[in-house]
User: Fold these one by one.
Assistant:
Number 1:
Amino acid sequence: MSGSPPSSAATHRRWPIIALIALAAALIVAALAGLALISKKSDEYAAPGLHTEVWQAYQLYNQLQRLETTARGVEAGEADAARLILTLGVMRNTLDPFRHTRVFDYLPEPRPEIAATIERLDRRSERWMAALDWQKEGAARVVAQEMLRTLPDELRPAHDVIVVSNIAVAAKLDHERQSLQRTFHWLTGMLVLLATGCLVLALKILSSQRRSRRLADALQALNGSLERRVQRRTQLLHERETLLRTILESTPSEAALISADQRRVFYASDRLLACAHATRLEDFQLEALFVTPEDYRQLVSRLDAGEALHQIEARLAPAAPYWALISARPLQVNAQSAWLIWSLDITRRKQMEQKLQTLASTDALTGLCNRRALLRATIRQMHAKRHTPLSLLLIDIDHFKNINDKWGHPVGDQVLRAMAERLRDTLRDASLAGRIGGEEFAVVLPETALDRAAIVGERLRAAMADSPIVELEHTPLTITISIGVTQHVWGESLRQLATRADRALYRAKHEGRNRCCIETMPIPRNRPLHRAAPAESDDIASP
Amino acid sequence: MPRLLFRGLRYLLLLVLSGLFAVSALADADEPPYPTDMPLLRIVDAAGNTRETLTLEALEALPGREVHGSIPDTHNPEASWYGVSLARLMATLPIPPPARLLAVGLDDYSDVIPRQDLERYDPIVAYRRNGHYLAVDAYGPLVLMYPYASHPELHERTYYSRTVWQLSELRLP
């Protein structure tokens, strides 16, 4: 309401300082004035004061009497001229101080008759002195007579000189006393002022000191609290960092955080360090992590493009490779571009996958491909190498039902396993051999023309028929097989191929088993390639 | 030409006049305002017998010494004083230097001069002030003078009192 509060507060704070400065200035001025006064007084008292006027007045009176006595002696012829001159000289000399003294100025009331007396005596004595001569006794007598006439009347004024001198000296002494007293009063006042000033300054210093101590205490407390807060904060951060690290290290996946220029590694889990063959963070090299440089290059180029990667499979740790699922994304760490890379060990998953794959594509009993796997492989071959010939052999064990019936299913299974074994032994590449039915097998021969396939079929037939397939209680069991062979024709489906092979097999069965029949299609150019097939193969040979 | 001659004559006149003044001043300085054979200072022993009487000639026969100062209580300005060292004067006596002696003036003023003053300050019995002899009505003919100018500590009532003017007598204890 009244004036601006900040400026009035500032004025309020400033005025004691101004007052203090004024006080200090006053003290300095007072001290200087005191010094000047003391110096002046000291000069005044440097030499002894003149207070000898009473004595000199007495001397004047005394010498006048003496002069009178001497003059009387001269008149009587008892003293000579020299004596008179000397006495007159001494008397005249006593007048000299009175010609210069200022002591009569101190008289409360002026006494002009004193100066007149001195003046008269000086004039007369001067005349007498001029009239006298050291050798002229006559002149001395004349002067002596005049002295005797005059001097008795001068004794009373000379006495007055003594009295007035005494009054004047007393007055002068009192004046000096008063002056000294004034000086002392003045100095006392000055000292009181100085003492007061010193007291005020001392109080101010004391209060300032107290205030500064209070401020220092407050500052220290503040500092302490700040330190505690910083400590608490640091601890919290540390705890959070530890927690984060624990979480990171507890996750089944590995993580690394590196700057985009790969110069700085912020974090890398221990396993990743080991995988990159590094012991310290500074030695970690992303490239060293990958088995395949191509994987590394792809990762970097996609991250450089600002892309995030999700679950890319890659093989890590060149020293002991394993499959990992990599996820990565670019981000900002302390205003710096960085990459966060996660990796998950999927070795077990891969193994499982492999196992499942194997399980899905293998015939459990014989270990050969199952029907589905073989069909797939065949289609793959047909598509991959469509300009090369491909042949299919369909194989069936002759009279397999009889074996089962006679020896039981376990022996049947044993026969099937041995059959697969013999297929593997006989074929150069058994990867495309499979069991496609109960006692039915198929072999796909890539890059093999029909004639060549027929030779292979015949070799298989011979391999089965030539020696017993299993030994049963010292009884060798021999089986025979029937084979249908055909070659794939360009543009033909697998079904068509299989149907034709099946027809060839049927013919082989029909023609008496233990033989290999070929079927050439679709060109109706029957070109049987029958090898001599033993007729007895219809039955299971038994020794 | 006549002007130049006039100026030359004027200078000559000035020179002659100043020469005359100088001679008269010298005559004044050399002539004491009292008879030279007049006894100026008596040395009296304890019994009151005069041991020695010194005239101006006798004093001037002794080696001189100069001090600077002024007679206290007289308003006279500082002057150079020339005379005989009191210690030197006492040494002429056939007695050992006394511990103290009394200096007495023509006006019967007197004060005691201790021997230490003679040793420390060597005051003189002066008979000339600024080269001139002293008349009896001008504090003369002799003044016992202390060297105030060279010893400021002498500005005390004690030494002021010992500065006896119109000195006429030295009394031995």
Note: Chain A touches chain B at residues 46-48, 50, 52, 56, 59, 62-63, 82, 85-86, 88-90, 92-94, 96-97, 100-101, 125, 129, 134 (CB under 8 Å).
Number 2:
Amino acid sequence: MLNTVVAGVVSAVALLSVLAFAVARPRRLPEAVAAVPAAALVVAIGAVPPGRAWTQVRELLPVVLFLAAVLVLAQLCDDEGLFTAAGDLMAGTCRGRPERLLGGVFAVAALVTAVLSLDATVVLLTPVVFATAARAGTRPRPHVYACTHLANSASLLLPVSNLTNLLAFSATGLTFARFAGLMALPWLAAIAVEYAVFRWFFRADLAAWATPAEPAGRPRLPVFTLVVLALTLCGFALVSLAGHNPAWAALAGVLVLSGRALARRRTSVRELTGAANPLFCLFVLALGVVVKGVTDNGLGAVARHVLPGGSSLPALLAVTAVAAVLANLINNLPAVLVLVPLLASGGPGPVLAALIGVNLGPNLTYVGSLATLLWRRVLHERDAEPALGDFTRLGLVAVPATLAAATVALWVMLKVFGG
Amino acid sequence: MPVVTIIWITEGTWQAAVDAARTLAPPGAEFTLLHVSGGEAAGAAHAAFAGLLGRGGRGRRDPGDRLEELSEAAAEELLRAAGERLGRPATVLRRRGRVEREVVRAAEDADLLICARDGDRERLGPHSLGPAARFVVDHAPCPVLVVWPREAPGLESLPPPPPPERH
């Protein structure tokens, strides 16, 4: 058995290596290739006793399965044309005025992120938004940036909106509906602030009139898919209220939609498995064990001194700020794994404040964290990233403003409705 | 010698630039339709995907790649429409990079550069020229014809005169 300091240092090095590998992805190997051996290492040297590692894996397993179900759900919605219909809907709002299109993009991106998670917005919605902007003859930059920003800032509402929320959900001790109730105002506040910042920041691009495009025709809405999605959402709330894991509702939604899509040969089991991204699930489990090694051997004790207790406004703001900084230094996934166990004893307030920090913070750096940014710079020097200056300036305005607005809104909700 | 005229084609305002070329360029002018892709949108999508740590498994396509394809297609379509509206023979020039710098470089041997304003037309003043157009106007190595994307504002847009100085 090693002493705590050595165990802490080895775990920290293991964590940094896992993150570096996940960013660099040599030969496009899956992230789990580094994370699983690193998890084995921290267990082997005794930094995390096997029993504790097993507890961590057992706690994380339902969470990653829930995420996998939501990822598959989003893919099935895409296969059924939901995102194409969303594009037609957004184009319909434009009518030659780019600022109207921006409003449409905000509404759609906020809803998609909240219901189908930020992954869906980044991977599935962004190309649709670009195509819509191009078709409408407007400059795509504000609209695409809106997508990437809202993927983070509109991911506060539901536990399913962001993997970080799912990881923290059980620690809050809240039901699905109560989580959504407390986060509704912070969610709206963050979106409203983003919208104001975008209208100001992109005023030149938005002033360029679009070519009034030919009317897109009525969008063909996939009604069945929308109904199943709505029922799944209600299911989240009801199943959680009954004291069960809301993941079951997600699974039910997936079974209905995939059953139909398979019967109509619109998808295959292979495609669905790919959408669930099992190697990513494995990566999160292994990452959880490695982070445990870091927090159990020093970092946790240090962080406990730094993090304020209670749900007063200054305390919540401090937690949000620490979480945002940590998310920018490493990434919000390890950040939330580090923070939640330390904050869980303080009730839902501090945990929700930390979620605001880790969810909104990544908009500050171009790729969601400083570490990722530096690595990409080192690895892809040939990639001139022209938007870097603009994107960072946008983040410098939007992130502090959204963090403050959302945290104050959370404090108000906690005051009015109690933790 | 024909007047070498570059028409800078940008989303939203290109029609005005093309129309100005048709009506205002000297007879016998030699036209080049220029489009510069900044790549910001695709870059932002690449970055957002990189921020989703660990999701880059096989079969998970980076949305930035898709945006690059779409942006190529959109630029081609824009230049095709511009050529059609111009209705005269024109060379097509496509560049990638920092938009304002590429436009200035492309105008190196030109006799005339035609572009449309892209700024805020609600408040006429310094900001009615967007940052890219401002840079081009400041650094262009040739005369620049800046046109309004829609009808030009009337004299009523003049701000009230400053109060007379008292002595």
Note: Chain B has one domain: 4-53+62-153.
